[in-house]
Amino acid sequence: MTASASRAAKSSKPSDMRRASARAARTRARGFAVQALYQVIVGRNPPEDVDSFTRELSGFHKADSVHFDALLHGCATQAEALDAHILPLLDRKMAEISPIEHAVLWIGAYEMQHCLDIPWRVVINECIELAKEFGGTDGHKYVNAVLNGLAPKLRALEVEADKQAPPAPAD
């Protein structure tokens, strides 16, 4: 059995499939959270109203609703604190940042602070993907730069440990 076939056989275990399904549900929750936070930022709609509306959208049943709640309500209630972390890393005023990138940066900052079970590199990668899907042409590059600057501040030990770790072997 080749190494890749062995990995494929191992990844079809029920526990691996549950983890993959949970990751996909969190990814969907982030997508819905970006859309909801956009409505909070642009429309100045109360998070409770946006929450009710978003739950009615097609596909929401496949999202991790607990993670969605944490992101929407956590980002909305902690907006000033999240902006305080983000602002020093910007090369322009927050008002000049696209509302989508703003929402994605909130999600990244929130997850780095409060979702310690999600590795910092995963937080950044998920936010890059959100910016690619919902944001402007090069918005993902900006999100990447800001969150890479934020990670050493919010996840100092984890970032430092990654720097000290030997590189992973190539397949």
Structural class by helix and strand composition: mainly alpha
Q: Which fold does the CATH topology refer to?
A: N-utilizing Substance Protein B Homolog, Chain A
Rg result:
17 Å
Q: How would you state the average pLDDT, rounded?
A: 91
Beta-strand proportion: under 5%
**Overall domain count:** 1
At the first level of CATH, the class is: Mainly Alpha
User: Which word captures the global form?
Assistant: globular
Query: How many strands?
Result: 0
Low-confidence stretches: 1-11
Largest sheet: none
Topology:
Blueprint: H1 3-11, H2 14-43, H3 47-55, H4 65-77, H5 79-86, H6 99-114, H7 120-134, H8 139-154, H9 156-164
Helix pairs in contact: 2-3, 2-4, 2-6, 2-7, 4-6, 5-6, 6-7, 6-8, 7-8, 8-9
Structural account:
There is one protein chain. The chain is mainly alpha-helical and 171 residues long. The protein contains nine helices and no strands. The protein has one domain: N-utilizing Substance Protein B Homolog, Chain A (Orthogonal Bundle), CATH 1.10.940.10.
Question: Which features would summarize this protein structure in a list?
Answer:
171 residues, mainly alpha, N-utilizing Substance Protein B Homolog, Chain A, 9 helices, disordered N terminus
Brief characterization of the structure:
About 75% of the residues lie in helices and about 0% in strands. By secondary structure, the chain is an all-alpha fold.
